[in-house]
Design brief:
about 270 residues; seven-stranded parallel beta sheet; globular
């Protein structure tokens, strides 16, 4: 099983990445992570283990998640890809709402560049379509940021195939990040569409945990991650954790490919 994917046609990333959302205060991933130094150690350990794709977002914190990543890793080791998202605002743990206005997306991109200490963001994703803003306007804003050299590749999150197709008519789409896991497979057609078109698929909730729920037990992660990595060659799994032990277990799971029989049994 191939364990790397060429994101956007030019960025070689390991198919086990790291989702940084949990490195925020609780509840609701709102506020600065209380054990800041521990978070930095975990991020550095991830890179040591060969993880070179790290996913964050403006809404994680908000913003302070990116600050933590930069403190831990900037200047970034060669080959490390930082992905972030804009288009969702969070004003309290339970107050989360989309804002896909072009002016907001431009402002959040500039903020992410500053917080992440980057001159260009490798992958910038629309976090969620905003029902109050024409989808094409939000995607067009990301296309403008790409032309301006602020971002390298454009991605989408929480979208349908119809929306992906619409976006591809505006700008090349490098990734899609939707909820998908061993027990929630409603996005199967999107996974297959992305695989057919060379688009990375980043399943959020890869272990079926709810967004603000405690981490899944170690014992349940290995089969779930192995199944995702076997499911399609364009899947980049991005499990999140605050435990270095859990992180190391995830890396081990990624190195244990399932047999045809094991994959079929889990797929029932």
């Amino acid at each position: 099983m191939e364990m790397t994917f060429l994101l956007g046609g030019d960025l070689s990333v390991h198919r086990l990445g790291y989702g940084a959302m949990r490195l925020c205060a609780q509840p609701g991933n709102f506020g600065r992570y209380p054990d800041w130094e521990s978070g930095k150690r975990l991020l550095r350990r991830a890179v040591e283990l060969g993880i070179n794709f790290i996913d964050t977002a403006h809404a994680y914190g908000p913003s302070c998640n990116g600050e933590l990543i930069a403190e831990a890793l900037a200047p970034y080791p060669a080959g490390v890809v930082i992905a972030t998202k804009g288009g969702v605002e969070k004003t309290a743990p339970d107050k989360v709402f989309p804002d896909g206005r072009p002016a907001t997306l431009r402002r959040r991109c500039e903020e992410s560049l500053r917080l992440l200490r980057l001159e260009r963001i490798d992958l910038y994703q629309l976090h969620r379509p905003d029902p109050n803003v024409p989808f094409a306007e939000s995607v067009g804003a990301l296309a403008d940021l790409q032309r301006a050299g602020k971002i390298r590749h454009v991605g989408l999150s929480n979208v349908t195939i119809a929306q992906i197709m619409e976006a591809r008519g505006i700008v090349p789409i490098a990734s899609v990040q939707n909820r998908y896991n061993l027990t929630e497979r409603g996005d199967d057609p999107v996974v297959d569409y992305c695989a057919e078109h060379g688009i990375a698929y980043l399943p959020w909730g890869p272990l079926a945990a709810k967004p603000f729920a405690p981490e899944a037990p170690l014992a349940s992660t290995q089969g779930a991650l192995a199944w995702l990595l076997r499911r399609a060659p364009n899947i980049i799994a991005i499990p999140g954790t605050t435990s270095i032990t859990h992180l190391e277990e995830n890396v081990v799971a990624a190195r244990l490919p399932l047999t045809d029989t094991e994959f079929a049994a889990l797929s029932v």
